[in-house]
Amino acid sequence: MDDALRLLTIQFLAWVESAPRTHGEAMAAWRTSCPRLPVWEDALDGGLVRLEPVPGAAMADSAVALTPRGEALLAAFAAHA
């Protein structure tokens, strides 16, 4: 992962951690069509965040949460900052 994408990923993880977020909010704020900056997609595929569906609700209402791996990456970055 290059430095720019790594820093954006850390920013995304900090954003998720800072307040309850929904899938809809994450898509509005972080989805991109730029193949060089796939922050949301990489975080999801890399196991850094997970979706927590709400029974009976639309996917946009699913919660986005850090996984233990995402928490560890964010903590490691904070320890070195």
Tell me briefly what this model is.
54% of the residues lie in helices and 12% in strands. With 81 residues, the protein is of the alpha+beta class. A 3-stranded antiparallel β-sheet has the order 1-3-2.
Commentary on this structure:
The chain is of the alpha+beta class and 81 residues long. It has a single domain (3-80), classed as Arc Repressor Mutant, subunit A (Orthogonal Bundle), CATH 1.10.10. The protein is built from 4 helices and 3 strands, in the order αβααββα. The protein has helices at 3-18, 23-30, 39-45, 68-80; strands at 21-22, 49-52, 63-66. Strands 1-3-2 form a 3-stranded antiparallel β-sheet. Helix 1 (3-18) packs across helix 3. The longest helix has 16 residues, at 3-18.
Key traits:
single chain; 81 residues; alpha+beta; Arc Repressor Mutant, subunit A; 4 helices; globular
What is the architecture at the second tier of CATH?
Orthogonal Bundle
CATH topology: Arc Repressor Mutant, subunit A
Q: Please report which band the strand proportion falls in: under 5%, 5-15%, 15-25%, 25-35%, 35-45% or over 45%.
A: 5-15%
| Rg, Å, rounded | 13 Å
Order of helices and strands: HEHHEEH
Helix content: 40-55%
Measured between the Cα atoms of the first and last residue, the distance is 18 Å
Give me the number of helical elements. 4
Q: For the record, what is the CATH homologous superfamily label?
A: Winged helix-like DNA-binding domain superfamily/Winged helix DNA-binding domain
Mean pLDDT: 90
Oligomer status? single chain
- Gross morphology: globular
The parts where pLDDT drops under 50 for at least 5 residues are none
Largest sheet: 3 strands, antiparallel
Question: What is the number of beta strands?
Answer: 3
Compute the number of structural domains. Answer: 1
